[in-house]
Amino acid sequence: MDHKNVVIGISGGIAAYKAVEIVSRLKKAGCNVHVIMTQAATRFITPLTLREISGNPVVFDMWTEVTNWNVEHISLATMADVFLIAPATANIIGKMAGGIADDMLSTTVMATTAPVILCPAMNTNMYLHPIVQENIAKLKQLGHQFIDPDSGQLACGTEGPGRLPEPVRIVQQVLGVLSIAGTRPKDKANSNGNLRGKKVLITAGGTREPIDPVRYIGNRSSGKMGYALAEAARDEGAEVLLISGMVDLSCPPGITRVTVETAEEMRQAVLAEFDHCDIVVKAAAVADYRVAEIQPQKIKKTGDTLTLNLVKNPDILKELGQRKAHQYLVGFAAETQELLQHATAKLEGKNLDMLVANDVTMAGAGFQSDTNIVKLLFADGRVEDLPQMSKRELAIQIWQRITAELSI
Questions:
Q1: Which three-class secondary structure string do you get for 206-253?
Q2: So what's the pLDDT on residue 70?
Q3: In DSSP terms, which residues pair with 376 in a beta bridge?
Q4: What are phi and psi of 146, to 5 degrees?
Q5: Which of these is catalytic: 31, 156, 251, 277?
Q6: In the predicted model, what is the mean pLDDT of residues 163-176?
Q7: Residue 321 above 90 pLDDT?
């Protein structure tokens, strides 16, 4: 993290004292940390303390004489690789949502193009107030990331959500975003935030259909392609909801993940959010069948054969194709023969806007692989062949095609 610039905004809440540990941990990780404080924040902790910990001047007044232009005002907004606000009070959240820029912190955060992470901390009733929740939702829609507050005993005596997350958790999130930002050019020439303001739903991984308490029907999907798509969408500024099967992958920073097990659980999770989404990418490998009757106890081995009665699962993708209104819908097809023929039938039969098809028998294109080889099929009949590449690079290519199709 050497030479990474983190700008930390501290607003006026009792949790401001925890900013000292956040700054200290980021410094130990090798980050260059600059602090902006609101006037109210200086009532809880002194600028001198933050200056000594950060090793940089602390900015808290718009009207003081400029002593070092390189770390003032717009320069801070420009130099930031990540902009963190911790604690984020109801006041600063409301200012940002309303476009108010009347102090150094609100002015600078409005001018930055860096990823913005907010850590709400306030009284439980304030946090749950519909206006505050509406402001948070608006900022999320604009692409800002949030670390949800912890629940517990608050300084005001109430108990519930509103406590600033532990500094170690906040720093982990910041470092995660920095590590991703480091893979992109500083000027973001290849990442223009084309999905900013868009809500994207992505499914990933395989589903499991239980047979008894210890066995299930599953598939070989690793979830790597869906997770790569989620990260690439986040990097383009989208608000990303990842509905994932049971996979051995951690949730990428800045992404909301819902973990499901069965096809029906995935269906319910997808339908609950579908109407509110702009783009839906169904990369999950959903089981086509489930057992008709799940046994309550482990099936004992009593003979040479075992017969299971299977029934068909709901076709989630087809249901979405019938239901879609404004959504751009993308499906995936993993085939072992007659790839183009089967993929075309799926594209048309399920009313998709795009289909990503691959032959999983090809070297470098199967399950568990870090690479893929695909054909992109479009609703107007176009077919595009993409060569073998990493799933991360393929995810970027897929989002480039989607944004081009949507002219965004």
A1: ECCEEEECCEEECCCCCCHHHHHHHHHHHHCCCEEEEEECCCCCCCCC
A2: 47
A3: 356, 384
A4: -130, 140
A5: 156
A6: 87
A7: yes
Beta carbons within 10 angstroms of residue 79's beta carbon: 17
- Span 47-53, average pLDDT: 94
**Cis omega (within 30 of 0) for bond into 87:** yes
> Exposed (0-12), middle (13-18) or buried (19+): which is 212, by Cβ within 10 Å?
middle
Closest to 37 in 3D by CA, of 26, 129, 177, 56: 56
237 phi and psi, to 5 degrees? 95, 5
Region 218-225 average pLDDT:
92
Contacts of 186 (CB under 8 A, 6+ apart): none
**Predicted TM-score of the model (pTM):** 0.58
- The verdict on whether 251 is a catalytic residue reads no
Burial class of residue 22, CB neighbours in 10 A (0-12, 13-18, 19+) = buried
Rg (CA), the chain: 24
DSSP codes, 130-180: HHHHHHHHHHHHTT-EE-PPEEEE-TTS-EEEEEPPPHHHHHHHHHHHHHH
Residue 373 contacts residue 339 (beta carbons within 8 Å): no
Closest to 79 measured CA to CA, from 181, 29, 144, 5: 5
Identify residue 266 by its one-letter amino acid code: M
DSSP H helices in 245-305: 263-274
Compute φ and ψ for 225, nearest 5 degrees.
-70, -45
Per this entry, what is the length of the chain? 408
> What is the C-alpha to C-alpha distance for residues 377 and 392, in angstroms, rounded to an integer?
19
d(CA 301, CA 306): 9
- Paired with 259 in beta bridges are 244
The DSSP symbol for 71 reads G
pLDDT band for 79, please (50, 70, 90 cuts): confident
User: Residues 23-56, buried b or exposed e (16+ Cβ, 10 A)?
Assistant: bebbbebebbbbbbbbebbbebbebeebeebbeb
Q: Residue 347 pLDDT more than 60?
A: yes
β 354-359/371-378 pair status? antiparallel
CA distances from 215 to 179, 291, 295, 296 (A): 38, 11, 10, 11
Q: 32 - beta bridge partners?
A: 5
Both tokens of 141, joined, read 């829609």
